[in-house]
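This part of the workshop introduces the protein records we will be handling. A record pairs a protein's sequence with a compact description of its fold. Comparing a sequence with its tokens is the quickest way to learn the format. To make this concrete, we reproduce a full record directly below:
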Amino acid sequence: MPPPRTRGTALRHRLAELRGPDVPAKALDARALAALAANPGCKRRAILDGAGVNKAVLADALGSPSAFGQSQFAFMRGNAFEARVKADGGAELLRLVHEKLDPGAEPPTRARVPDLSAIGPEGRAARTALALREAAAWTLLDHPMLALDVAGSPAFLEPDAVVVHPDGSWTVVEIKSFPMLDGSADPAKVGAAARQSAVYVLALEEVAARLEPVPRVRTRVLLVCPKDFSNLPTASAVDVRKQRAVTGRQLARLTRIEDIADALPEGTCFAPDRPPAELTAAVESVPAAYAPECLAACELAFHCRDHSRTSGAVTTLGRSLRAELGDLTTVDEVLSAAHGESGDPDDPAVAALRRAAELRAEALAPHLEAAGSRQGVLDELQEGAPCR
């Protein structure tokens, strides 16, 4: 007889059914996790990412293709720069770690670079945990595999590198191909790299918590970029304590994936080869929390924006405005409250809307009166009346 299905295997089987039996799973990376943590109320993204659905392919099948994706040139340039940074056993990378993060330690004349190859992401994650436990002095882990629990489902993450210091502490290294000009880089790109690195820090902390004694995971990560307009590496220490705290708090708020899956209609499937009407119904069966910020973080943003506009949701106008409107969730409700047709007058949001409507009417009254006079003259001219 087959072994009994555990809760974990049952969830994986359910997620495979949602993805489609013949559709390979798309790995959930740190960038996607950071975007998911930035919008924890979106159950649609949570279940699609948890099931390993390729949202770019799904968006194409829905008729709302995304503008996501890195150019092949940028991808090749990034790989070439990373290979240069890690050349000679990571000597230059370790020098930068020593210089920027641990200048008081013994210089890294030699470093161990353990082999992390194994079968499957689970095997690689186990091999990484073993290498971290056995590490001593300067050790460079090249593309380790880390596991992070996200809403009850494991996500496997692959940072560019993790360095073990002589004191046993661990540092995340993020290698990017955008330049540092005169020692500083684009703040928006640095912020995105910090949020991505914070996810790796959280995953490392889960590994550290299983060891005795518990190693220290440094919250200052090393960001390595090309110097000015050259291909020479330079680096900067980035404090990700704030991003780590926010990301951890947001991930903890995520509804468990199995709870979302249990609430879906029987037979729901997000396979891109399904008929368009059936696929649209499957996607719309999961509540979304669209906001303009999704355009820079989610492949399904155009699809969700169209449906959000059709329903008149105020989130289309931004999260800050949505937060100020309280119980008013649609544009029709907002206009009705502003015109005094509905809403509780004691509600601060309703009172503010009505006051704004009054001020608008007062400001437009002279212009409307002048426009009415001009229209009256035009009407008389068209009727052949003498001009006054």
